[in-house]
């Protein structure tokens, strides 16, 4: 995550990577170990799925 032109590390990208590795992935693993299912968010967009008509629909009623 280093800029080849300046040699500087892009802080925003590094922080995003840290959040994914240290927060999001462990949380997903914990929920899956408790029996929760994981579905990537893009698969639940109104364009890809009939489970919600808008991104504002946060409760997916068709799921078990």
* Number of distinct beta strands: 0
Helix/strand/pairing category: mainly alpha
Mean pLDDT over the full residue set: 82
Q: Rough shape?
A: flat
Low-confidence stretches: none
Q: Biggest sheet: strands, sense, closure?
A: none
Please count the helical segments: 1
Topology as H/E string? H
The level of helicity is 25-40%
* C-alpha Rg (nearest Å): 17 Å
First and last CA, distance: 40 Å
Name the beta content range. Answer: under 5%
Structure description:
The model has no long low-confidence stretch (mean pLDDT 82). The protein has 64 residues and is mostly helical. It starts with 10 loop residues before the first helix and ends in a 31-residue tail after the last helix. It is flat, with a radius of gyration of 17 Å. Helix content is 36%, strand content 0%.
List the helices and strands and how they pair.
Blueprint: H1 11-33
TL;DR?
The protein contains one helix and no strands. With 64 residues, it is mainly alpha-helical.
Give the key terms.
64 residues; mainly alpha
